[in-house]
Amino acid sequence: KVKAQICRQKEKYGWEFLFLGANIDAAKEAARFGISPDRAADYHADARGTGVVYEAVSETLRSFRTAKPIDARWKKSIDADYQARRK
Q1: C-alpha angle 46/83/40, rounded to 5°?
Q2: Is the dihedral of CA 11, 15, 16, 19 positive or negative?
Q3: Span 45-54, pLDDT tens digits
Q4: 25 and 44 in contact (C-beta within 8 Å)?
Q5: 41 in helix, strand or coil?
Q6: Alpha carbon distance 53, 58 (integer Å)
Q7: DSSP classification of residue 36
Q8: Sequence-separated (6 or more) residues with CB below 8 Å from residue 37
Q9: Where are any strands of DSSP class E within 22-79?
Q10: Which of 60, 20, 54, 13 is nearest to 37 (CA)?
Q11: 6-44 tens-digit pLDDT
Q12: Are the C-beta atoms of residues 46 and 35 closer than 8 Å to each other?
């Protein structure tokens, strides 16, 4: 049901969706909802990781609000932090 709603909003209105996941495989879970892997990011659910996410998403939204497409590098800082601190 959620996947159908997301797909509808994407097709009908051109909505974009980002999927952020801590302690899960974000890309795999995003796919269950019809969200492509390039719009999903794993992150560490601590103060540092959450701060990185807020900064990246804030910048992405700021750009998107000016009618620019979401840059493929939107999650670069999130991925870098996640990989650097991966256990």
Answers
A1: 75
A2: negative
A3: 999 999 999 9
A4: no
A5: strand
A6: 8
A7: -
A8: 27, 30, 31
A9: 40-42
A10: 20
A11: 999 999 999 999 999 998 999 999 999 999 999 999 999
A12: no
Give the SS3 label for residue 42: strand
By three-state DSSP, how is residue 43 classified? coil
Q: What is the pTM of this model?
A: 0.90
Residue with tokens 């807020």: 54
Q: Which positions ≥6 away from 74 have C-beta within 8 Å?
A: 18, 56, 59, 60
Tell me how far apart the alpha carbons of residues 73 and 8 are, in angstroms, rounded to a whole number: 25
- Is residue 15 a contact partner of residue 9, using CB atoms and an 8 Å limit? yes
Contact 29, 68 (CB under 8 A): no
